[in-house]
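TL;DR need structure tokens for one chain.
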Amino acid sequence: MNLGHYTESARQHLLQVTQPLPSKLQLGLSKLWRHFSQGFAKLSFAQKLYLIALILAFSSNWMGQVALVAVIAMAIEFWPVFERVWHSLAGKAVLLLFYAIIANFALGWSGAIVNEVVGVSASHLDYTHNLAILLYMPAWFLMVSAIVLLALQLIIPIYLVLIFLLKPLGVKSLRLTSHTSFRKTTFLIRIVLASVVLYHLSLLIDLEGSIETSFADLITASQQTSEQRAIEPALGLIPDATGGTKAPALDLVLIKPTLENDQGANARVPSTEELEEEERKQTYASVRVQYQHLVRQLLASFAFTFEANSRSRCEKPAESNVIELNDYEILQITPDKKAHYGYRFEVKKCISAAFPLVAKSS
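>> reply
TL;DR here they are.
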């Protein structure tokens, strides 16, 4: 009896030795996981998308996906704000004015694209003009989004400073979103991700190139003036009879190799980040060019297939379709694989029963 009791006690002791209690590390990890699960459950769907985008942002190869997820999260987050603004009288007036301005620019831009493709005014091709507006809606959406994000990046710091200064007076910040937890953290993450989205949108619509083109003349003029002032003393320019300046012939011969040597000495090997950024720019430029070419091909095909008439009072080749511009002229559209967009557009004289072809007398 005592031997059996002793054996049972020994077995229990061995079980306690061979199966130790969970370590402090395991307890800490389980506690951390419990807090993370509880915090994750409090997040809204938009906040969860922000968290996914933030995790993806740690890898530089996933920045495009980061921008896409951030855009979806912002759309979900601010859609209720848009609805509240739309259902107010003042907000509806502001939004309609904003859309009217955008629509005016879209009409003008699409008209220019149609004119580029067909070679005549877009007023003669109403349906093709409407299709151009629809096809360029994604481009306008991206452009407007970039403008809004850029404006927000400029306004938010000013807004934060004003709220900080007016806080002693009891002024509270506006609560645009319906988040119940982690509002300040979400705000900071949104600013960071908005910068990423703005960067990719600027590459996609070539915002940098547009700005450089707008200020090209001013920059070129200032650079030429500064370079001229810097080179004149070094060359020993002497005034001529007309009041201008000229350099000795020997100095003009020697200055070019000197400048080339300076440029070669100042040349440096681009870093990995610069190479990646250049590759990213080329990728977006390729996407932009392909999209523009595809839109123009669709417009040319639509004009031939749906806008133009296969039969007309004016004489035309059997394989071509025509659009009557007026009583005397037609736009003849002929399929041509050698043409830039697959079709050849020609304005020709209308030869009909009322306006027959008159042979020239010798």
